[in-house]
Design brief:
Oligomer: heterodimer
Shape of chain A: globular
Distance between the termini of chain B: 90 Å
Largest sheet of chain B: 6 strands, antiparallel
Radius of gyration of chain A: 33 Å
CATH architecture of the domain at 4-250 in chain A: Alpha-Beta Barrel
Number of strands of chain B: 20
Number of helices of chain A: 42
Shape of chain B: extended
Structural class of chain B: alpha+beta
Strand order of the largest sheet of chain A: 1-3-4-5-6-7-8
Strand order of the largest sheet of chain B: 16-15-20-19-18-17
Helix content of chain B: 25-40%
CATH topology of the domain at 4-250 in chain A: TIM Barrel
Amino acid sequence: MGYAQLYTTTNYSFLVGASHPHEFVERAVALGYGALAVTDDCSLAGVVKAHVAARAAGLPLLVGSALRLAEGPLLLAYAPCRAAYAELSGLITLGRRRAAKGAFRVHLADLRFRLRRCLAVLVAEGEEPPPEVLDALVRAFRGRLWFGLDLRLRAGDEGLLAQWRELGARFEVPLVACPRALMHDPGRRPLADVLCAIRHRRPLAAMGSLLEQNGEAHLQPLAELARRYPPELLAETWEIARRCRFSLDELRYEYPPELVPAGTSPIDHLRRLVEEGKGRRWPGGAPPEVERRIAAELELIEALRYEHYFLTVHDLVAFAKSRGILCQGRGSAANSVVCYCLGITEIGPEQIDQLFERFISRERDEPPDIDVDFEHRRREEVIQYLYRKYGRERAALAAAVITYRRRSAVRDVGMALGLDRQLLASLAASLPWWEGLESLPALLAERGLDPEAPLLARFVALCREILGFPRHLSQHTGGFVIAATRLSDLVPVENAAMPERTVIQWDKEDLEALGLLKVDVLGLGILTALRRALELVSSYEPAIRSLADIPREDAATYEMLCRADAMGVFQVESRAQMAMLPRLQPRCFHDLVIQVAIVRPGPILGQMVHPYLRRRAGREPVEYPSEALRRVLEPTLGVPIFQEQVMRIAMIAAGFTGGEADALRRALTHWGRDSRLAAFRERFVSGLVASGHEPAFAERLFEQVKGFAGYGFPESHAASFALLAYASAWLKRHHPAAFYCALLDSQPLGFYSPDQLLRDARRHGVAVLPVDVSHSAVACSLVAVTGQDGRVRRAIRLGLGQVKGLAEARARAIVAARAAGPFTSVADLARRAGLNRGDLARLAAADALRSLAGDRQRARWASAAAADTPLLADAALPCEPLVAPPPLAIAEVAADYRALGFSLRRHPLALLRDRPPFDRCAPARSLAELPHRALVQVAGWVTARQRPSTARGVLFLTLEDETGCANVVVRPAVERRFRRPLLTGRLLLVKGAVEILREGTAVPVVHVLAGYLEDLSGHLPPLPVPCRDFH
Amino acid sequence: MSRCPSLWLALRLPDLPLEPAGAVEPIAVVEGGSVVCANAPARAAGVRAGSDAATARLLGCRLRERDRAAEERRLQALAERLSSLTPHLAPRRSGDGRHLGLLLEISTCLRLFGGASAIAERARHLLAPQRVRAALGPTAGAAWLFTFVRGGGESDPERAAARLDALPLDALAGDHPEAVAALQEMGFARLGEVRRQWATTGLSSLERRVGRTFAADFAALYDPAGDRLLPAPAPCLVSDPPFAARFSFEVPATGTAALLPPAAALLAQLRDFLRRRGLSCRALCWRLLGAAAGQLLEFPLRRHRPAADPDGWLQLTRLAWERRPLPFPVAALELHCPETEAWRSQDALDLAGGAGELAVALERLAARLGEGAIHKLACRDSLLPERAQQPIPPDAPSREAAPSLHRRGLRPRWLLPSPRPLAERQGLPWWRGPLLLLAGPERICTHWWEEEVARDYYLALRRDQLPLWVFRDLHQGGWYLHGLFG
């Protein structure tokens, strides 16, 4: 017999519990408890995490929840069996769905009718419930009710035992010990108080008796419990634990049945669909190798009973295609010929050497994961289709747990400790985004405060402690769970912040841990852009209608990429990718797959990049570890780059099965946490030795594989993305106007701001016409312009949608009104399109009234009066001339940025170029002409700050001037000295040495190694310069 | 236009929010988290109007929250000091509340005081020690704007207009933030450019775009006649000095008894003064002056509601004077009544009620024992027993209910003001005899963010059956007595 802890509130009762579920489990084991119940407030959000920890530790876990009834009493409910679990989950769903997000409401009547199997503990409180409530509870839960005593040395605890003993005798209800635990360890007391203060949004000093009166709400040693409770109350805990035999492992996913037509089995239906797809993919008949693979895949799918999953995803993809929504599977699913036939993925066996086991294997105790990307603007249509098809009862989004990060921690903990709000705001703003809280003490010291002072030391410690604590549930970006019957039998469902959205209480990891399937409906901006670009191109070149019409292996496209001319091209446009392009020089599709995969932590940390580049440039001989491995490593010149290659090495050289190889890959991914790695090492080395390799070689190969596999990238995923990268590159090369136009309409997207994209467009000779109420459509559009040479070119006319703050309905009204005839004046525009003063002001600010009123100032002058004109007053009322002086160039640029986020006028740096110190700075374009290691100073506005985890603390800056971009490398020592300009500077001056790599590259790769930085933002008017910070 | 041209003196008072001025420590007055005004030491430390409060604190300033009502009172009082110069004066506040000052129309009293600069000098003198920025102008608006620029004012209309023209439009942003922003966006940078637009397309073109209020104020800036048919009448401030009366003894009085008859007479004067004006008062102050310099004794009196009746006041006066013997012979008796309020009929009626009796009793007790000597106990929401009750003034509203924690738990009626250390013998507390622990512990551990408190409370019984509330300090060890049960 043992003791079961019955009342545990984890930090998944948000801002209440002060320990993680696994911390409770570990401490319960250490204290020798016999079982642990997790009872979060009307929630099962923390149970899976507790379950995973308890399963590993061998501790029986009771699934329960604490329910504070609207009538007053507090009840703990536990699920003794699967059916009771469904009851509890259903009740929590009911209580949560009828209250606002984050709250719940449960009535006594709900319990009586819905909890017919659950065990219940009524928590004894000083004020006993009214007799009728007590009576109703006793009758409803006869034989499954206990009175629980939560004794924690609090005021009034002494009388409780006698009071409730008497009640228990009267109602014939046994008493049980149920001390509440809010934390696993008494050391969490300050954090528990801080969480409580955050929940009540007031400082600790003003909390009074809202706080716990002492810190006893932690898991107590058994000896202490024996001092506080009579032995029979402790023994009774075991009676409850004994009756609860339910484990979350019993939950089985049941698939929605409607996807299989009546009279057929799921596998037959899937087989038929694959057969149809095969006919489309190989009109002349599939090669025998493909047939063999399909048969093998289907056999495994049937054996593991994954047919429904494939059918569900196929159904979604078929829906999207029927609506003309571009979609494409990503990730390891591209290793499956079945997915290729079903149209879920676009990578076939001809493009890459597919390895099905990377996707599904018998050995893996986890369902496959098919992530499908849809056009981001139309993803909502797919989501609504899911809701329509399965109903809200059966489909819901997985949760995303929002946790405390640096800034929220500083703000909330500081508020609770009563620190000055402005101080907190300034601290939060000054925390470098690339760090944790390491610099917090230094930041305090910078502000003249002593970080060692007791309160501030507490503050720093509590901020660290609260990091990673869950705050609330949000919705996952697109992970849907679909159930065969009621989803709430499986997991509680609650309201999301968005109206008409529901979200389950478990996140992606919880679902994976229990082996439940989810379908990822992801949004991908480039798909939106590609569809828009194809639409634009087909309007003047009808042969190009879909991605399939894009000619393959176009040399001019690759040539453009080799020049690092890749802004806007999917996946290869980042600073690091652009630096790699001229060195790797992709000349065919597979090169592009490698390009996508190689600028990643795995290959960089595994030191695969330089050997590959040297071999590719012919500066190092191509060698293979053995002849047997030549076939595996040949496509990447003997250097392993993809996860699939690692698996094949294990299969070919060490005799692993596909499933085992996948298990090895997974063990490598989790190395340090996976105890199986040692066994795999043994297998791997002995396998290699058995097939005739030297033991030393085998050991070396294993080390190499280990160092890399954890971060490697699957070839299937790289290939799926490379397809989109190629398509976007081809459009950029051959139809630049359509390409940039589509990118502008699909914002936010990619690495670059519209401003940078527009400048790039014009560098490529694409004319860009400003937004104008007399010419613009709602979206950006193409217009044919005849050049001086008589040739027709396409220019981009910016759309009214670019005007910040202008409602789309107003933009449509303008276009509709213009159809009846051109506008004659601002007043005419206001009258016919029904625009108000604010609309006119926004249009004037965006310089979109030029055709009607002249420059921005005149437009403002005219629109300020027009808005005043009564609707029917005729537009002929003359507009008085404006006598104010014309605007300054720099002010116009600033106004463009404020109203549009970009400017078609001269670059601000061009306007500053004549002034010191800018006159002594080298323009970005001229850097490549300097000698290597020459000293140089450059100035530009900061368009990106990056600190990749692979770069050992190096920070990369991109500085843009009127001629292009300069890449600046800031080493940690320099970063520490110039932290402030780095963090806040918008316009920076950098002095340093220019580093130019010319050898083996298509164009020189140029960096400036910074030695000195200065913030020159004061030279700019207040421009909202878009800058993106990346980790 | 036979009207004599107007002439305005603007006096801007940048330190008005800082009252009382002259502190040597750095002080910043803050409002909405940013500094409104900083004194000289604070300015020397680098604090400026507009800095944020946290910065000011970090630079060593003491922060004081802005009190607009008090500023208003001070401005009124300063205006009264200047009423001897001209009856045409009015307070001036910028629309955003940042700047305060006074405007005086002085064209009619130039000769009396010997010219504008003499008047300005006199005004400075009267306002001392307030820091003053003074400027002259042909219109009130111009004079006010000139207080912001170097070189002071300009009384000649033409030259003043030229100087106004050169001012940036931002000068008007305090009063007309939206109109100024709109005009700047239309390309206007200086006042002169707006004036040119006005001259070219008429004032109505401005009215339509940025509103009539701005247009009218703008026009009035240049020309008091402006577009208006009649000049706006200069505001006239009539002030009434507060009540003060004095009685001088021919032979200094040595006992309070001798003070009472003149006191009654002075209170009757006060009643007449108040009655004539429809006022009553809640507080007054007696000043007893001795023959020698510096011999001064003040007795402030306060009633719970406004009253003008001499008898009531006299009773309180007697009680107050009985508190102590006179330290010096009294040569003169003064009665001051600085604050008055409008008389309401119920002030006279309500005195008979029961609550009224208690209030009167409290008034008398306060007069006899001195203000601050009377408290009532109120509950406060705190986990610590000693902080769960607090003395508050008798007329302050109180929280009636104790926190439920203290109602649930065992709590003695009589809580010692601070816990009293007890001796310990054989592990048990000892207070004039061994104490037997009957019930407990109740554990209170909290306030870790200030000074951590960790105690186990017990109900203890002394041999003479006296029940006590004692605790053991869990950090320091040791026993304490915290209360006695009835």
